[in-house]
Design a protein that fits this description.
329 residues, mainly alpha, DNA polymerase, domain 1, hpI Integrase, Chain A, 2 domains, 3-stranded antiparallel β-sheet, two-stranded antiparallel sheet, 13 helices, 48% helix
């Protein structure tokens, strides 16, 4: 349940709880909150649990150097840590941070691993039931695994042939493709959700988590079918934050385990995962000649440069050059 906000006391006294409270007042995405809190805690632990108020720019530089030199993190990882610490000092604590002098992590250009269409289909064929349907949505709609698992029944618009992705990366909503070949499977899945939901209601449960205090705005919504997760977990569980017994969605690690096994059983020897389906969605659309800005919108990328990496993937090993092994003479 790591996508449900951690409950805070009305008047937080702990430093980290105060930071969380401040982030929520700013209206930042919960993913951003998790990221900033994680790096703040790592920074505090690195400096032997000293309070950040007792630390200064030299301590920030020391930590960023540690990430680059000792841990050899990726440039984006170091940049994320820097953003979190700048937010901590400038925004939350109201302290200026002067020019920092630290070792930058050397950028390494890595192309994403992708499946060919044949490989993607081969992996999907090794999966059954809900896991196959999730893989088909990730490949057919370009979804991240977290976006797929958070889908509610109401997010499927068969009439408009679209899938609504709520609060994706950056806290933004977007629409993407709802693949027609799996309409029947999706309708079957909704019927299964309805059966499970009716059983929960009959047992005195049936309430699902609703974000952003929507449960107060729509009191009956939490027990309605349309708000139920499309891929509910097999068992009800107690929400450790609120103590309410609910049925959450399937855990991401469970899906990752099934997909990893399917990749192996399909005989594909690539460093692939659930996210490879999303990469493969993008490269497949490029190969079909679709406009890169359309693909950017479907993927929900804020910058076109992020989407343009896929143009390098479909060109790697090609560049219109014919291998000497293919010469006839």
């Amino acid at each position: 349940m790591n996508d449900i906000p951690y409950p805070l006391p009305k008047q937080p006294s702990r430093f980290i709880d105060q930071l969380r409270y401040f982030i929520r007042k700013r209206g930042l995405a919960y993913k951003t909150e998790q990221t900033y809190v994680k790096w703040t805690l790592k920074y505090i632990r690195f400096h032997n649990k000293q309070h950040p108020a007792r630390l200064n720019e030299a301590h920030i530089e020391m930590y960023l150097d540690h990430l680059a030199i000792q841990l050899c993190v990726a440039p984006n990882t170091q940049r994320t840590a820097l953003n979190a610490l700048i937010f901590l000092y400038r925004e939350f604590m109201g302290r200026s941070v002067e020019q920092l002098n630290y070792q930058y992590t050397k950028p390494k250009r890595r192309l994403p691993t992708v499946f060919s269409h044949h490989e993607a289909v081969a992996v999907i064929s090794q999966l059954d039931g809900s896991y196959r349907l999730m893989a088909q949505l990730m490949y057919g709609g370009g979804l991240r695994i977290s976006e797929c698992l958070r889908l509610r029944v109401k997010d499927l618009d068969f009439g408009m042939k679209t899938l609504i992705v709520r609060e994706s990366k950056g806290g933004k909503d977007r629409t993407t493709l709802l693949p027609e070949p799996i309409y029947d499977s999706l309708h079957d899945q909704i019927r299964k959700v309805k059966v499970i939901h009716n059983q929960d209601l009959a047992s005195g449960y049936g309430e699902v988590y609703m974000p952003n205090r929507l449960a107060q705005k729509y009191p009956s919504g939490a027990k309605s079918l349309e708000w139920q997760y499309l891929f509910p977990s097999a068992n009800r569980s107690k929400d450790p934050r609120s103590g309410i017994i609910r049925r959450h969605h399937i855990f991401d690690r469970t899906v990752q385990k099934h997909v990893k096994r399917a990749i192996r059983d399909a005989g594909i020897h690539k460093h692939a995962s659930c996210h490879t389906f999303r990469h493969s969605f993008a490269t497949s659309l490029l190969q079909q000649g679709y406009d890169i800005r359309t693909i950017q919108q479907l993927l929900g990328h804020a910058n076109l440069e992020t989407t343009e990496i896929y143009t390098h993937v479909i060109n790697q090993g090609a560049y219109a050059v014919i291998s000497p092994l293919q010469r006839q003479v």
